[in-house]
Amino acid sequence: MDFSEWQRFCHGSWDRLSECWFVKVLAGACLLPLQRHVALISLFAIVVALDLLAKWLALAYGYLREQCVRSRDLWSCFLSIPMAQRAGVIRSDAMRKHFCGKMAVYLILIIGGIIGDQMLIMVGEDAFFVSLCVSYLVVSEMISIVENLNDAGVDVMVGLIDLLRNRR
Predict the structure, then answer these.
(1) Do residues 133 and 109 lie in contact, with contact meaning Cβ atoms separated by under 8 Å?
(2) Is-contact 130 54, C-beta < 8 A?
(3) Burial, 25: exposed, middle or buried (Cβ in 10 Å; 0-12, 13-18, 19+)?
(4) CB count in 10 Å sphere of residue 19
């Protein structure tokens, strides 16, 4: 791409960006109060995805053990995920349902927490439901990640599992 093409691209992008600018500014202003919740949902989705990766590692570890493979370190487990998927040990449909189910529970709890917090604020009390729900869900996911890593042969996780369970 030479300079003139780059200039045309930037000019066209600016034109599209500035079309109906007032609608975009108004939509942005309306969505601004949701920024914190969208960030929380996004971060929770990343934590759930990490949990799924840890689960895949645990399943791949079991697959390698079944195949009598001697090298079952974390990297070997990671590299064997596609083989475990082809063997049917890791099923994408089950993992997708698991991810969607966790996200649905998260959304239901957080929306309920937001409503509960608003009710508490209306009667002059301190809001705490959202932070309570988020804390519980994050600790639960972290326990799941650590348990899955433990199942994947990372044996230093036992102490962390106990700490997280006590924190819950």
Answers:
(1) yes
(2) no
(3) exposed
(4) 9
Environment class of residue 15 by beta-carbon count within 10 Å: exposed (0-12), middle (13-18) or buried (19+)?
exposed
**Residue in 60, 83, 70 with CA at minimum distance from that of residue 152:** 60
Q: Are 55 and 95 in contact (CB under 8 A)?
A: yes
Give the angle 111-141-83 at the CA atoms, nearest 5°: 125
Q: pTM here? A: 0.73
Spatial distance between the Cα atoms of 106 and 92, rounded to a whole number of angstroms: 21
- Here the tokens at position 25 are 């500014």
* Tokens coding 10: 């930037």
DSSP 67: T
Tens-binned pLDDT, residue by residue, of the chain (168 aa): 678 888 888 888 887 777 887 888 888 888 888 788 788 888 988 999 999 999 999 999 999 998 888 887 888 889 899 999 899 888 878 778 888 888 898 889 989 999 999 999 999 999 999 999 999 999 889 889 988 998 888 877 777 777 777 766
User: What whole-number distance in Å separates Cα of residue 81 and Cα of residue 74?
Assistant: 11
